[in-house]
Amino acid sequence: MSSFYAITSIPMKALLLLVIKEQQQIPHEMDAKNELPSSILLKYMIKFKRKIDIALSTLS
User: Fold this and answer.
1) pLDDT, tens digit, for every residue of 7-52?
2) Which helix (H) or strand (E) holds 1?
3) DSSP string, 16-30
4) Domains in the chain: boundaries
């Protein structure tokens, strides 16, 4: 239930926008590693998900 809340919450949407914006600023890094944008986005989401889970657990 908490992961569903995290995905639909406003802070999560703001974080997604931030990640997408940051991703667009590093196209040379994507080319160098031959990675799809989605794989870079996934790496950011995995990294931030841990922080979000910690934050949610302290709130509840």
Assistant:
1) 556 676 777 777 767 666 555 555 555 556 667 677 777 777 777 7
2) none
3) HHHHHHHHHT-HHHH
4) 2-59
